[in-house]
């Protein structure tokens, strides 16, 4: 398979095995962004830095990721992705090694920002999965890959806490470097060679991302919803680390990481959102997801002293936000076949800018009003997204095939 060029409009070649590999690799790549999140207090103590400064590790990673999405992912439309994806995973491997060896918080901030820039393979694989699958199952295939990526976010927190509790926080970055290198080799062997979908200079390629945002109304409206969704998601998970490590819970990093497993139920449920897209129910499902997010943050306001309610909120929020992510990406991919990598660039750049804002807001809101402030902000932001959906559902959010 890997030795024969495949035209961009060739029949579907996404087998179950290849879909699974894409999902695992995408999950590992995106998971690299979150190894540090449940370890903020742990890392701060080890590097003799304030906890508030450690909170910026998540923000630095997401800002770097947004830059990597903007500058690297569009190349998926003009280069052979069989080479591009493994190359980026090897670059991420080098950044992970730098994180594992970081002697100070300043060095770690720089290394983890570089990791964000380079660990973009998952966002190249998602549109590639769309290209290699037929239209009748594209939502399901893309949904599976994206669900794998989102599951990677949750599992990375769990694994991070368990490994750090046994071997220290540096061990998790070293182990991730090995895994990323192995996946780079497997993907090089499995991905078919594809003829480029476009031929243009790099400046023109990057400029075309901006033009897509200007000219595609569906993309602009989806960007607002996606950025809001990932903003509240990142805000919640960053603040949850502060909540569970302090009073009244005082949980160790190993247990904080295990909380992420509760979100897997949400990941498995949200994976069905891709099938809803294939059946033409994307907008209806989006409304339900945002209404669920609003209710979840209301419940969250009462969860500051109950681990049971915390777990309920984790599951519900992951169902709501992960379903939205899958539906948003499927909607954007329906806009244009030829520019899927660039459309994905615009969507994910905006999404992770929202995530970076959410992580930064978590630190500020926690200092100002603790968990109550986080819950109120989440409810307000989710209500805003629901209002945007209500306005846009009769035109601005309708794409071909949705």
Walk me through this protein's architecture.
The protein has 402 residues and is mainly alpha-helical. The chain has 17 helices and no strands. The chain is globular, with a radius of gyration of 20 Å. 58% of the residues are buried.
Task: Please supply descriptive tags for the structure shown above.
single chain, 402 residues, mainly alpha, 76% helix
Q: Give me the secondary-structure category.
A: mainly alpha
- Mean pLDDT comes to 86
Please describe the biggest sheet, giving its number of strands, its sense, and whether it closes into a barrel: none
- Supply Rg: 20 Å
> First CA to last CA: what distance?
32 Å
Identify the overall geometry.
Answer: globular
Helix content: over 70%
Unreliable stretches:
1-11
The oligomeric state of the chains shown is single chain
How many H/I helical runs?
Answer: 17
Element pattern in H and E: HHHHHHHHHHHHHHHHH
Quote the beta fraction.
under 5%
The total beta strand count reads: 0
Spell out the blueprint of helices and strands:
Layout: H1 16-31, H2 40-46, H3 51-54, H4 56-72, H5 81-100, H6 105-118, H7 121-131, H8 138-167, H9 169-190, H10 202-215, H11 217-245, H12 253-259, H13 262-270, H14 273-278, H15 282-300, H16 307-333, H17 340-392
Helix pairs in contact: 1-7, 1-8, 1-9, 4-6, 4-17, 5-6, 5-7, 5-9, 7-8, 7-17, 8-9, 8-12, 8-13, 8-16, 10-17, 11-16, 11-17, 13-16, 15-16, 15-17, 16-17
């Amino acid at each position: 398979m890997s030795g024969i060029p495949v035209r961009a409009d060739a029949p579907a070649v996404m087998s179950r095995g290849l879909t699974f590999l894409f999902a695992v690799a995408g999950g590992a790549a995106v998971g690299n962004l979150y190894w540090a999140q449940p370890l903020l207090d742990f890392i701060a103590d080890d590097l003799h830095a304030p906890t508030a400064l450690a909170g910026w590790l998540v923000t630095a990673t997401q800002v770097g990721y947004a830059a990597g999405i903007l500058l690297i992912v569009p190349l998926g439309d003009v280069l052979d992705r069989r080479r591009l994806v493994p190359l980026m995973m090897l670059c991420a491997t080098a950044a992970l090694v730098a994180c594992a060896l970081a002697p100070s918080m300043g060095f770690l901030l720089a290394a983890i920002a570089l990791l964000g820039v380079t660990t973009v393979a998952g966002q190249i694989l998602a549109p590639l999965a769309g290209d290699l699958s037929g239209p009748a199952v594209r939502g399901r295939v893309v949904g599976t890959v994206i669900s794998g990526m989102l599951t990677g976010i949750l599992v990375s927190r769990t694994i991070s806490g368990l490994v750090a509790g046994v071997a220290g926080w540096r061990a998790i970055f070293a182990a991730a470097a090995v895994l990323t290198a192995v996946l780079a080799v497997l993907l090089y062997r499995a991905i078919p060679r594809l003829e480029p979908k476009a031929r243009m200079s790099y400046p023109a390629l990057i400029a075309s991302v901006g033009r897509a945002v200007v000219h595609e109304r569906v993309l602009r409206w989806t960007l607002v919803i996606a950025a809001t969704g990932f903003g509240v998601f990142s805000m919640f998970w960053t603040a949850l680390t502060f909540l569970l490590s302090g009073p009244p819970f005082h949980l160790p990093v190993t247990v904080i990481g295990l909380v992420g497993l509760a979100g897997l139920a949400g990941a498995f449920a949200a994976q069905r959102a891709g099938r809803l897209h294939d059946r033409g129910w994307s907008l209806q499902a989006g409304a339900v997801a945002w209404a669920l997010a609003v209710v979840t943050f209301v419940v969250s306001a009462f969860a500051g002293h109950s681990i049971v309610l915390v777990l309920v909120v984790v599951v519900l929020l992951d169902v709501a936000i992960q379903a939205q992510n899958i539906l948003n990406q499927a909607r954007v991919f329906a806009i244009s076949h030829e520019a899927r990598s660039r459309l994905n660039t615009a969507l994910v750049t905006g999404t992770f800018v929202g995530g970076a804002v959410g992580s930064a807001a978590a630190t500020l809101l926690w200092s100002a009003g603790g968990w109550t402030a986080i819950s109120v902000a989440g409810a307000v932001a989710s209500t805003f997204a629901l209002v945007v959906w209500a306005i846009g559902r009769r035109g601005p959010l309708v794409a071909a095939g949705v």
